[in-house]
Please model this.
Amino acid sequence: MGAVYFYHLTRTPLEATLPMLLEKSRQAGWRVLVRGTDRARLEWLDEKLWLGGGEGFLAHGLAGGDFDADQPILLTEGVENPNGAACLMAVDGASVAPDEVTAMQRVCVLFDGNDPAALEVARGQWKALTGAGCAAQYWSQESGRWEKKAEAG
Model:
């Protein structure tokens, strides 16, 4: 049974935090599904990941191609899991169901702490997922480094 980790982004933007979490997930041996809510935003993230360069290169693809099932990291708006991911990263308020948390090794919800609407969505997700019995952790970088601020389940 997996757990959901909430990442409250206050000091580094999504395009800087996501690659770090993707790298850790890949080091754990997990395939990853990055779920967003907007195709244009996912295309933007796709470009940022390709331009990362250096040793931090993360092989990935944007859903809708011929090789979705082969991608170690797949960016999508869908709720399917075509690449057999063990880790789901939800960005920009993308939905996460309790059964996904229990089916995955890890679910990460990344949200912009400077956006009041994103905060409300994340609070609602925390309440819904912990209310359904999912184990959860809340991480904040408010102090300048990542610290666990809350835990449930």
The CA atoms of residues 9 and 112 lie 5 Å apart.
